[in-house]
Specification:
Blueprint: E1 6-12, H1 15-22, E2 32-38, E3 57-63, H2 74-91, E4 96-98, E5 102-105, E6 108-118, E7 125-132, H3 150-154, H4 160-181, H5 183-192, E8 200-205, E9 208-217, E10 223-227, E11 232-235, E12 239-242
Parallel strand pairs: 1-2
Antiparallel strand pairs: 2-3, 3-7, 4-5, 5-6, 6-7, 8-9, 8-12, 9-10, 10-11
Helix pairs in contact: 2-4, 2-5, 4-5
This protein binds biotin.
Biotin binds next to helix 1, strand 3, strand 6 and strand 7.
């Protein structure tokens, strides 16, 4: 069950790193590691994840996904979708997913997701790291996207454990669907929770920046982009920015 057992730490370098070390002890699937404070919170693309102490959700969930690895690209999308459902339920906030792993409210970043995975075929593991800004109202430092929190969006403090419980429930529901049916249903729901499909995007990858239009998700959860030269390609990594259309 997602969220059981639950290990809560006051301070840790990174809950993802802690969860990874825990793999040696053969933890149950669904084991949840949370922390009040991370001293080296990890983001995608070797970035840092900053969070005020005790104000936000800093969580890592250990999974042993039973499906072929081709489907695993759906896991970060599943996690983001679960966050949108949890925050709608708890705080009545309409959040959107942005490929591959952000949850935004009107362009402001509410949550980041970092899925790390490894292991061999029958002992493969995934650690789903989720940072949700819940009660933080002051954000210092530099952010690629303007940060926000549930408290800022809803105008009131939220109960961290209620948000965490809702999040675990939503992940549980979607993970059961994913385990049974693979990516299809999760990706369809993700597209409805996103404002990206059909929009013009810029993709910043290792080879520079390229413009096109996000047209769909592939079955393996890649973002299919039609570049400005008319060719179509699945995108697997990089930063995607949705661009405003000129009227
Ligand atoms: C991103 O937006 O780049 C992903 C951020 C993921 C942050 C979470 S916080 C809990 C877990 N532990 C980490 O070190 N990172 C993830």
């Amino acid at each position: 069950m997602i969220g059981t057992p639950h290990i809560h730490l006051e301070t840790v370098d990174s809950t993802n790193r802690y969860a990874r070390d825990l793999l040696r002890e053969e933890p149950e699937e669904g084991t949840l590691v949370t922390a009040a404070k991370q001293t080296a919170g990890r983001g995608r693309l070797d970035r840092r994840w900053l969070s005020g102490t005790g104000e936000n959700i800093l969580a890592s969930i250990i999974l042993r996904p039973p499906r072929a690895m081709e489907d695993w690209g759906g896991l970060p999308l599943l996690a983001g979708l679960a966050v949108t459902r949890a925050v709608r339920r708890i705080a009545n906030i309409e959040a959107h997913v942005k490929w591959p792993n952000d949850v935004l409210v009107e362009g402001r970043k509410l949550c980041g997701i970092l899925v790390e995975s490894g292991g061999s075929a029958n002992r493969a593991w995934a650690i789903v790291g989720i940072g949700v800004n819940v009660n933080q109202s002051v954000f210092e430092g530099e952010y690629r996207l303007p940060p926000t929190s549930l408290a800022l969006e809803s105008g009131r403090q939220q109960d961290l454990s209620s948000v965490l419980a809702a999040l675990c429930e939503e992940i549980e529901t979607l993970y059961l669907v994913w385990k049974r049916d693979g990516n299809t249903a999760v990706l369809t729901a993700w597209k409805s929770a996103s404002r990206m499909i059909g929009r013009r995007v810029t993709v910043e990858g290792p080879e520079g920046s390229r413009a096109g239009r996000a047209i769909d998700l592939a079955e393996d959860a890649a973002l299919i982009v039609e570049w400005d030269d008319g060719t179509r390609e699945p995108v697997y990594a990089g930063d995607v920015t949705v661009r405003e259309e000129l009227a």
